[in-house]
Amino acid sequence: MLKRVGDREFPGKTEVFIKEASFPVPFQPGLEFNSPAHGNWNIVHTGMLVPEAHQIYVCADNCMRGVVLTAAEMNAADRFSFVIVEEKDLLGGNLEDVTIEGVTDVLNRLDKKPKAVLLFTVCLHHFLGSDLDRIYGELEKRFPEIFFMRCFMDPIMQKTGPTPDQKLRLAMYDAVQERKADPKCVTVLGSDFALDEGSDICRILKKNEILLREIPTCETWEDYQNLGEGSLILNCYPAGKFGAEKQAERLGRPFLYLPGSFDYEEIQEQEEKLLGMLEQQNNRKTGEIKGLDIEKEIRECEEALSYAHQIIGDTPIAVDYLFHPRPLGLTKLLLTHKFQVQSVFLDSISPEEKEVFFWLKENYPELKLISTIRPEMRVRTRQQSEKILAIGQKAAWFTGSRNFVNMVQGGGLWGFDGIRHTAQLMVEAFHEEKDPEDLIVRKGWGCESCI
Amino acid sequence: MRQAYRIIPIYTADVSGVCSALYELGGMTVMHDPSGCNSTYNTHDEIRWYDQDSLIFISGLTDIDAIMGNDEKFLRDIEDVAEELKPKFIALASSPIPFMNGTDFPGLARALTAETGIPAFSVSTSGMHDYVYGAGLALSEIARHFTGAAEKRKRKLNLLGVTPLDFGPQPMVDAMKRRLEKYGWEILSTWAMGDTLEDLSHAGEAEVNLVVSSVGIPAANVLREKFGTPFLVGTPVEGYEGEISDALEKAAESPCEAFEDKKENSAEKSGAQISGEQEELWKVTPDQVIYLRKKDSPLSGFIPTPDITLIGEPVTMGSLAAVIEQKYRKKVQLLCSLEITEGLLRQEDEVIRGEEAMEEKLKTARIIVADPLYRPICPESATFYEMPHIAFSGRIYLKNLYNFRKTT
């Protein structure tokens, strides 16, 4: 029996100094370990954002188990159904019929028909060459009042094409209907979390009396449909760009990709672009679109970071990719403000971070990059003798730290406010210990969790 | 439609069953899968994942490798990790796509053994069976590969078929062991919680084996063939340990005929012979199943509407049913949705396939004891007692596991 090993070192396999790291994959691919940090959202969590919709999966037991219990743990079992694929369905070549009849049966047994169904087909459908058009065509004929979203749970394809998560974020917006563009409305697509009220985008829109519509704040199907009113479509989360951009094209709306950033210049450029686009959309006769006072914003960021540094001092810091899609950007910001970031937990480097990767390589060559999925990570040392501030759940688990920032995927952070908020979260985490064993194992940070 | 589920989940599947059974034995288990099996297993089916290390990984299979049959990468990746982490064995489990492609897992296991010198075996999963199937076959491989000839020792036994999926955390298992120890039995090894591979390797010294869940049947059959160890089936739930102990004593007194017949053959040969015969692996006879032994009772025989309905795994719940009937004089019926039930259900019990059939069957139930996630398909009129089962609801009710609680 192996018990609480976690006491070995594997230099070269699990970690590398950034000066020696290759781009974009610093570690040798191979078998994969999955840590107990589960706060990231999966396709079930994201799909539940569509109000008055029902999710139906058609797959084998082992794959099904993960998604059905995701729904149960978030107390949403009543919005989730499934059809089990058995060995005979593969050998008999009738997976299409099983899918059609199974989904029909589920829908007929629901007390109330949903407005939409997110129907997830899987790897097996691809490999058997199932006729998905026939499946959806037949279901649409049988249930004309229901909108069927073509979703996939096919992780076998994710290294050579869009991930199931990306494809979902395309499919789930298919139901957003074309509406007359409202110049006083902007829609954000692609995120799991609503932007913080204090985030720069929210403040800019509020200042200019422009309504913000976002999926996470939609409570009804009607709200969801109204997402189509936005005269401009924004996306702030990288995994959502694929779907949001295509939907903007379908809806005939201008699209702006504004990923969360920790770089003053980039934020300033993003806000300028946003203001320019808003001006075009509004075509204002009276008064200009008003932006934020950038100098003041930066000054306040500096104050927040300086204050955080006074508190945190030289305490070692570990950052992970799950906290924010720009872990290296955050690392650069912290290092240039004298924080002692020692390691970044990640498995690949986003193309969006290529520039900062090479900047760090040159300026902070001793920064460690540490894998989260290399098999050796299962037994790598997890307890540290000194206090470590972990930014993110995976960093918390791998360092054994109880002082950690518990947030995933960038939460609702955006802009200069996002930087200040991050500094504040770091201070809070430094002061107050949390229980990782209770918190990070919960699936879907921010969702209801009944474990 | 039997395969369509509106609201209840399904049981843990075979791949997770393999991982769960082998978790504590110091081996390395590799699921040949792109992604999902890993997080499904360690999130919902494995309560030890946070603080008890075990070498369980996925291969990260891609569409290209699956289509091109690139098994070489799979082997190379495993060899690379095995060299570093030095597991005691390597176990391979298949997810649906490699199963569909006809990947030759026994062949890959042989290649791994040859290349690494580490014993390797595969368990014939497809991701489309339940955990009993996967865990049962995994433990039978341990019995086949890692147990050696030994002298029998009086009042020693092994408990077979113990995983958190059916028994919860280790303290629950310890409590079960104590119940038998009170009757003078020494537990040589528990398959497979709380003991090492070394402990399990001495299983042949046992006078008798006790299969405490259906997961233990294949290992029991292998040990019977290899060492002539008789086995009985029944779970020492509270209040049932006395009857089990009596039955064990009688079984221990009787030499195992099958072994006597084959005594001239080597143990190795006997073990090998059985490996490919899955039907034989799951075989039990009525005299081996303690709770099937009818006593003179006014409750015996079929009663159209039982007083109490249990839902769950046949051996653990069958034993519980026996205790309830004896103690409370209430007629109990067990409904089971798992695959392996042959020879394990009483006359009045039923195999129920699918949510719709289960919902229909429960319409007349008066008292139901089941995992809380069955509640949505139970009639309002029934009294429902929660009995969380990790193989059904995962970790959701872990905090109050096995504490009976009346909810309606």
Overview of the molecule:
The complex is a heterodimer of chains A (451) and B (408). Chain A is an alpha/beta fold and 451 residues long. In chain A, the strands form 3 sheets. A 6-stranded mixed beta sheet of chain A has the order 1-12-11-10-13-14, with helices on both faces. Chain A has a 4-stranded parallel beta sheet with strand order 3-2-4-5, with helices on both faces. A 4-stranded parallel beta sheet of chain A has the order 7-6-8-9. In chain A, helix 7 runs parallel beside helix 10. The two termini of chain A are 27 Å apart. Chain B has 18 helices and 15 strands. The two termini of chain B are 29 Å apart. Chain B has 408 residues and is α/β, with parallel strands linked by helices. The interface between A and B is large, with 69 and 75 residues. Strand 3 of chain A pairs antiparallel with strand 1 of chain B.
Summarize the structure.
Chain A is of the alpha/beta class and 451 residues long. Chain A has helices at residues 43-47, 61-73, 87-91, 95-109, 123-127, 132-142, 164-171, 200-207, 221-225, 238-251, 264-282, 294-312, 327-335, 354-363, 393-399, 415-431, 436-439, and strands spanning 15-17, 53-59, 80-84, 116-122, 147-153, 182-188, 211-214, 230-235, 255-257, 316-320, 340-345, 368-370, 389-391, 404-405. Chain A is built from 17 helices and 14 strands.
Per-chain topology:
The complex is a heterodimer of chains A (451) and B (408).
Chain A: E1 15-17, H1 43-47, E2 53-59, H2 61-73, E3 80-84, H3 87-91, H4 95-109, E4 116-122, H5 123-127, H6 132-142, E5 147-153, H7 164-171, E6 182-188, H8 200-207, E7 211-214, H9 221-225, E8 230-235, H10 238-251, E9 255-257, H11 264-282, H12 294-312, E10 316-320, H13 327-335, E11 340-345, H14 354-363, E12 368-370, E13 389-391, H15 393-399, E14 404-405, H16 415-431, H17 436-439
Parallel strand pairs in A: 2-3, 2-4, 4-5, 6-7, 6-8, 8-9, 10-11, 10-13, 11-12, 13-14
Antiparallel strand pairs in A: 1-12
Helix pairs in contact in A: 4-6, 7-10, 12-16
Chain B: E1 4-5, H1 14-22, E2 28-32, H2 36-45, E3 55-58, H3 63-68, H4 71-85, E4 90-94, H5 96-101, H6 105-116, E5 120-123, H7 131-146, E6 156-160, H8 164-167, H9 170-181, E7 186-191, H10 197-201, E8 208-211, H11 217-227, E9 231-233, H12 241-253, H13 257-261, H14 267-275, H15 278-281, E10 308-311, H16 314-328, E11 332-336, E12 350-351, H17 355-362, E13 367-370, E14 383-386, H18 390-393, E15 405-406
Parallel strand pairs in B: 2-3, 2-4, 4-5, 6-7, 6-8, 8-9, 10-11, 10-13, 11-12, 13-14
Antiparallel strand pairs in B: 14-15
Helix pairs in contact in B: 1-2, 1-7, 4-6, 7-11, 7-14, 11-14
